[in-house]
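Appendix B. Worked example

We walk through a single record from start to finish. Start with the input: the chain for HNH endonuclease, Leptolyngbya boryana CZ1, length 116.
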Amino acid sequence: MNSKPPFRELGRKSQKHKLKSGIKQRFNGACAYCGRTPQVLTLDHIVAESKGGRNVISNLVAVCKRCNLSKGSLPLWQWWQASPWWNEERAIAVAATVLICALKSPASATLPLPPS
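Next comes the structure step. The output line below is what the pipeline stores for this chain.
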C-alpha cells in the first residue's frame, strides 16, 4: 500500500499547474487588485521575493499584467491604496483569501506582535 498523498504522485509540472490554477480561481479569473478579467493572469507575490516574501500559496495572488508591473516590489497596501484601482471590497476579499506568511529572513521573528 502506498502511503504517499495523491498530490505527490503528480509530476512537478502538474503540481505547479494545479497550484497556479487554484490561485487563479480564487477571484473567478479576475485580477485580485483591479477586478478586470484579462485573457492572461500572472501570479504576484504579495510580499515580493526581493523583500523576503516566500514562494508559497499564502503569498500569491492572480493579477493582471498591468497591476503586477505597476506594483513591482512595493508593499501591497502602500501601492494599492495609492493606485486608481483601490477597492475596499476587493481588499477585504484579498485579505480573507491569503494568510500573513513568514518571511525568509530570520529578522522577521523580531517583528512586534499586534496589540491584543
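Two observations about the output. The longest helix spans residues 12-25. Confidence is low (pLDDT under 50) at residues 1-10, 105-116.
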